[in-house]
Design goal:
Blueprint: E1 8-11, E2 14-17, H1 24-56, H2 61-80
Antiparallel strand pairs: 1-2
């Protein structure tokens, strides 16, 4: 297997270094953030149906699905609103 070498690219006054070994901190942060996002999505799929059933009395799957969809849409709007 050919050995991968890092390259340094000029970017204005700063230099950009390519390669996982050189950017392990950013890569580790990316992995950590993705793990948190994945766990939040998993908790949303597990916790929200239980919450909808216990707190709001929604017993049918269609009602629970609509609760999850409305929660997701509200969350999306709340995430976009500060950028507008």
């Amino acid at each position: 297997m050919a050995q991968l070498e890092s390259r340094v690219l000029p970017a204005g006054n700063a230099e950009v270094t390519l390669g996982l070994r050189e950017n392990w901190r950013q890569f580790s942060l990316l992995v950590l953030v993705n793990a948190f996002v994945g766990s939040m999505a998993g908790m949303e799929r597990v916790v929200l149906p239980l919450l909808a059933e216990r707190e709001f009395g929604l017993v049918s799957r269609a009602a629970i699905l609509s609760f999850i969809v409305s929660f997701g849409l509200t969350k999306a709007v709340a995430n976009v609103a500060p950028d507008a």
